[in-house]
Backbone:
């Protein structure tokens, strides 16, 4: 059986996120879905796998159903497949942030960097005045990244603030193009940089996954594999599974 995998997120006001947890868990369980969903006051972030029709039912409920009442009308969604179920169980958890940065000024619902579609990404990152910045942790960067990208050398995304304070200068770095796996970390990172006075901040819409899905390998500036937070471990161009074994890698996950 081929499993359909949905990765999704949206920053949206969910003041009732605690009350949403159990109904969402029950809905997913009723569809025999497995994976992980984070709920916070600021929105939702998850990766879920199951039968194609079950995934479609979940996506419809999130975007159009009564549970969220139309508040998730701008979900960032990416679909891929897995030959085997990539998750061992279903987890729906409450968090302070759906991606942890720890900067209250970084609010993507108020301001966020300029989205760049995958088809336009190569032109942006090859411009001589663009600083290309990988916002993922060092383990992920070591597995693969874009040509010429700066590795911030962080163990978790929460350390990005320190990297930016120590290594980035609004007067010197006039144009920054950043990327991450699916786009969510860049939403927070770009909001953080804009709040600190950086003038031009861009990020890859849909993240590396969207780029690998849409950009032909012959035209790609991506090198290596893209780590994903499930038992497939890494994906390549066309979102193909790479056949790596997670237990051989040894790492700390940065969700």
Residues:
């Amino acid at each position: 059986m081929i499993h359909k995998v949905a990765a999704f997120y949206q920053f949206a006001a969910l003041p009732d996120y605690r009350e949403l947890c159990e109904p969402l868990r029950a809905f997913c369980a009723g569809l025999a879905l497995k994976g992980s969903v984070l709920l916070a006051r600021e929105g939702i972030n998850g990766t879920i796998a199951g039968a194609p029709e079950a995934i479609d039912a979940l996506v419809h409920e999130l975007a159009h159903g009564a549970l969220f009442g139309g508040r998730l009308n701008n979900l960032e969604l990416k679909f891929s497949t897995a030959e085997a179920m990539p998750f061992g169980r279903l987890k729906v958890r409450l968090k302070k942030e759906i991606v942890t940065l720890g900067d209250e000024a970084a609010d993507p619902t108020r301001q966020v960097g300029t989205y760049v579609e995958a088809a336009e990404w190569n032109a942006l990152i090859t411009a001589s005045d663009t600083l290309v910045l990988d916002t993922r942790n060092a383990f992920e960067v070591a597995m693969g990244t874009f040509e010429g990208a700066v590795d911030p050398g962080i163990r978790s995304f929460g350390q990005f603030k320190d990297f930016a304070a120590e290594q980035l200068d609004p007067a010197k770095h006039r144009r920054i193009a950043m990327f991450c796996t699916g786009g969510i970390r860049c939403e927070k990172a770009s909001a953080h940089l804009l709040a600190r006075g950086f003038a031009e901040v861009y990020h890859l819409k849909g993240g590396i996954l969207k780029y690998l899905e849409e950009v032909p390998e012959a035209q790609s500036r991506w090198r290596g594999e893209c780590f994903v937070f499930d038992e497939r471990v890494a994906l390549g161009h066309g979102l193909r599974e790479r056949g790596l074994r997670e237990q051989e890698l040894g790492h700390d996950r940065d969700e």
About this structure: Residues 17-30 form the longest helix (14 residues). The first strand starts at residue 3 and ends at 11. Confidence is low (pLDDT under 50) at residues 245-255. DSSP finds seven helices and 13 strands in the chain.
